[in-house]
């Protein structure tokens, strides 16, 4: 089984290729100037390292979010463009699940990522399994409604999280993507039932949608 994955949900752009028992990883870092032009060469390089062509792929995968609107659109558009010809199943993965795998947590860990506009993308994972569904919450609601626990975040929260314990990331995004891809692919009993269209999980209204609702 050959599975090619892309993650652009955070500031970092990375890719991963699972080919049989071998794993290939790549990252463009957080340089936004090369994100739009560097993705396809990065993915092509992964295939070249494995000695594969695009036609040898069985599944495409991507980090569906939540994350930045721009990043999620880039990943979805990239896979949609590839699948216009390839027509492959698309495996969807949570970006927060990937972040959880960047830590060395030995128990439940909350992922609290700033979504701006006073909100956060929230998820809780325990050894790679979702404890609760990813959602979008107001930071103030997190402080008032959630019991303090262990958390991680790729950016500094905009308000103090008293009594919460911060768990720093200890692994690269590409490594975590590879782990989550392996886990997610094993959980699919029949990849033929996967959709062929990438569907981002925004979980948050865009600014245009906010303005429309405010009228």
UniProtKB/TrEMBL annotation:
Domain of life, per lineage: Bacteria
Q: Where is the Gcp-like domain?
A: 37-126
UniProt keyword annotation of Transferase present: yes
Q: Name one GO biological process term.
A: tRNA threonylcarbamoyladenosine modification
Pfam family membership, one = TsaD
Q: GO molecular-function annotation terms? A: transferase activity
InterPro entries, per the entry: ATPase_NBD, Gcp-like_dom, T6A_TsaB
| Swiss-Prot/TrEMBL keywords | Transferase
Question: Gene3D superfamilies in the record, alphabetically?
Answer: 3.30.420.40
Descriptive protein name: tRNA (Adenosine(37)-N6)-threonylcarbamoyltransferase complex dimerization subunit type 1 TsaB
Q: Which organism is it from?
A: Mariprofundus erugo
